[in-house]
Design goal:
This protein is 41% helix and 14% strand. With 324 residues, the chain is of the alpha/beta class. The protein has a domain of 221 residues: 3-Layer(aba) Sandwich (Rossmann fold), CATH 3.40.50.720. The strands form 4 sheets. It has a 6-stranded parallel β-sheet with strand order 2-1-3-4-5-10, sandwiched between helices. It has a two-stranded parallel sheet with strand order 6-9. A two-stranded parallel ribbon has the order 7-12. Strand 4, helix 5 and strand 5 form a beta-alpha-beta unit. Helix 1 crosses helix 7, helix 4 runs parallel beside helix 5 and helix 6 crosses helix 8. It binds NADPH dihydro-nicotinamide-adenine-dinucleotide phosphate. The site of NADPH dihydro-nicotinamide-adenine-dinucleotide phosphate has 26 residues, from helix 1 and strand 6. NADPH dihydro-nicotinamide-adenine-dinucleotide phosphate (NDP) binds next to helix 1 and strand 6.
């Protein structure tokens, strides 16, 4: 039987990247479309996955054999802090509906998406896959984090009781085309790209919060897309896999702002504003050792400035249609 792959959250940053890779990699290649394979990219307009009937209808319409489950209520620090119950409940409903429906419909495989912010607040670094449940998550996002952690619990329970092939991925900070560039709600990179664009347009200083010292791992959405496709085809354990660049590929916010200035041809330097002395966590490195040992060292991540350049080009070409 031909494979039908349903991507929930298929209209978002990661979903659009999977669609791009499936369409642009050579057919039949490691990450390209395989003969007889059908890919469906569903957004919330097609089915509100908080609703069990809508979820069932979506599965009955497409009869997926495989699911990459990305759909989630996703938000920045502010939204997570202010709406903990909404983040907890919406994400629990979405995940429960998708996993339960996949189970009753006999879906062969489901990969769900966690995030490195589900890890314990107090933990020894680097983050590795077995540390997910070792302590409470940071209080600012405990609704989102607990809902996502529960997916790992569900995956194990579905496997033990029903033998389901359900697993999960844990990406670090994702960026790329189709990101949310909203100044208030976006993650750090798209927010800085948008800020730099406005500074250039209005001839105003490009101001960056904090002193620029925190280090973060950023993964290009199109690289992450390949890793999801690899996990779908080549990884069959219930245990999660961290999908990330290497620990020593961390980038400081200062380097990030300088790269944005360079890629966008902004004529000045970024100004770092550290009045509140609020830098966030210094670093929270995640190890990609498990991933690299499985996928092989021939997997190459896109060079950072190339990926940033492609993201900026997309943002400039889509300003007005993008989430700003
Ligand atoms: P986006 O916000 O770009 O996309 C979210 C997707 O989920 C959209 O397709 C949206 O549909 C869909 N969605 C939201 N609510 C519902 C709902 N009630 N019913 C059906 N679909 C819904 O998110 P990303 O692509 O960035 O994130 C994808 C996954 O990756 C998420 O699970 C997220 O937690 C995880 N992740 C993201 C990281 C990041 O840095 N971005 C880091 C680590 C993990 P529509 O747009 O049509 O409303």
């Amino acid at each position: 039987m031909a494979a039908v792959v349903l991507v929930t959250g298929g209209t978002g940053l990661v979903g659009k990247a999977i669609e791009y890779v499936i369409e642009h990699e050579p057919e039949g290649s490691r990450f390209g479309k395989r003969p007889g394979e059908k890919w469906i990219f569903a957004g919330s307009r097609e089915a509100d996955l908080r609703n069990s009937e809508a979820t069932l209808k979506l599965f009955e319409k497409y009869q997926p054999t495989h699911v990459i489950h990305l759909a989630a209520l996703v938000g920045g620090l502010f939204a997570n802090r202010e709406r903990k119950m909404t983040f907890l409940r919406d994400n629990m409903l979405i995940n429960d509906n998708v996993l339960h429906t996949a189970h009753i419909k006999g879906t062969k495989k489901v990969i769900s998406c966690l995030s490195t912010c589900v890890f314990p607040d107090k933990v020894e670094y680097p983050l590795t896959e077995e540390k997910v449940h070792l302590g409470p998550p940071h209080s600012s996002n405990f609704g989102y984090a607990h809902a996502k952690r529960m997916v790992d619990v569900q995956n194990h329970a579905y496997k033990e009781e029903f033998g389901c092939n359900f697993t999960s991925a844990i990406p670090t900070n994702v960026f790329g085309p189709h990101d949310n560039f909203d100044l208030k709600h976006a993650h750090v990179m798209p927010a800085l790209i948008h800020k730099c664009y406005l500074s250039q347009k209005n001839n105003t200083p490009f101001k960056v919060m904090g002193d620029g010292s925190p280090l973060r791992q950023f993964i290009y959405s199109r690289d992450l897309a390949k890793l999801f496709i690899w996990q779908l085809r080549e990884y069959d354990s219930v245990e999660p896999v961290i999908l990330s660049v290497a620990e020593n590929d961390e980038i400081s916010i200062r380097e990030l702002a300088n790269s944005i200035v360079k890629v966008m041809n902004y004529p000045d330097k970024p100004e770092f504003e550290n009045e509140l002395n609020d830098n966030g966590q210094d670093r929270k490195p995640a190890s990609n050792a498990k991933l690299m040992s499985l996928i092989g060292s021939d997997f190459k991540f896109t060079p950072f400035e190339q990926a940033l350049g492609e993201t900026v080009t997309w943002f400039l070409q889509n300003y007005g249609n993008a989430r700003t």
